[in-house]
Amino acid sequence: MTTSVGFSEMRVFVAVVTEESFTAAAERLETDKARVSRIVQRIEEKLGARLLNRSTRRLSVTEVGRDYFERASSILAAAEAAEAAVARQSQEPMGRLKITATPEFGTVWVDDRIAAYLSEWPKVTVEAVYSNRFVDIIHEGIDVAIRIGALADSDLSARKLGEIAYGLYASPAYLKRTKAIRTVDDLKRHDLVMKTSSGRTSWTLVNGQAQEKVSQTPRCAFDNIVAVKNLTVSGLGVGLLPRFMAEPHVAEETLVVVLPGWASVPMPVHAVFASTRYMDPKVRSFIDLCRDAFRDSSPA
Q1: Mean of the pLDDT values across residues 237-255?
Q2: What is the CB neighbour count within 10 angstroms for residue 46?
Q3: What single DSSP character describes residue 5?
Q4: SS3 content of the chain, % helix, strand, coil (to 5)
Q5: C-alpha span between 248 and 166 (Å, rounded)
Q6: Which is nearest to 165 in space by CA: 252, 257, 240, 254?
Q7: Using one digit for the tens of pLDDT, what is the confidence trace for 177-206?
């Protein structure tokens, strides 16, 4: 039965072939020539094959030895990569973490994640860039971009954090002074508080396989979802809101769900970052925290 060759023995053989010398390999490994020679001889005995041709003038690799060298090099490279990956994952996050998101989502959701992250990792500092413009994360030195909606094709890496789900809401005061809302068609006779999108003021609502479009002049229109939520709570009409923003008000009884089951299509949320072989611990830990927040507290 053939005895397997260990990683340390492989490293010695690879060093000998790379350096083309027992002496040079011994110097590289900080050991003596005799020990290197004994290890190579032991490998040949275990494998039952001659790997090196030795002479007083030069050392050459046999055909079998060349094949073993290439395979051993690959094995060692893979082992070193695995060790490096584990080492990086076990490192404590530290240094500056630069994040970007839209102003709306940044202030209503990312802020809380940053607070939790900094409490957990005291050696990290955070710089957040909240902007509606498309931020070039490579040229602007961004570590993580939180982006909502479908992603464009790029060479960047991305991990899905979760989805933002929506619902229709109104204040109890508004519903008390208006007619009941039993169908989507009833919305035509109600005041709506809408978020504008490229100048458009309309909703496309779905409920299972059913789909309805609500297109009418709203009582209030804003380009900011926080304003939509504030005016809906104030009783100005029916608003289409992210659930994670509205549900605290439902618990406080300052908002009520309207037409349960009807909502717009959920929006995916991704963390986008530069494609690297090993993810920096501070980036990985922040993304993990965000994914946990979506999964555990169902913010969307």
Answers
A1: 94
A2: 14
A3: P
A4: 45, 25, 30
A5: 14
A6: 240
A7: 998 899 999 999 999 999 987 667 789 999
Residues linked to residue 162 through DSSP beta bridges, in sequence order: 269
d(CA 170, CA 286): 35
Query: Exposure string (b/e) for 225-256, b if CB count within 10 Å is 16 or more?
Result: bebbbebbbebbbbbbbbbbbbbebeeeebbe
String of DSSP letters for 64-107: HHHHHHHHHHHHHHHHHHHHHHHHHHHSPP-EEEEEEE-HHHII
CB 272: neighbour CB atoms within 10 A?
21
| CB-CB neighbours of 84 under 10 Å | 12
Bridge partner residues of 61 (DSSP): 52
The residue whose two tokens read 């939790």 is 116
In the three-class reduction of DSSP (H, G, I as helix; E, B as strand; rest coil), residue 9 is classed as: helix
Both tokens assigned to 13:
């053989």
Q: How sure is the predictor about 1, in pLDDT bands with cuts at 50, 70 and 90?
A: very low
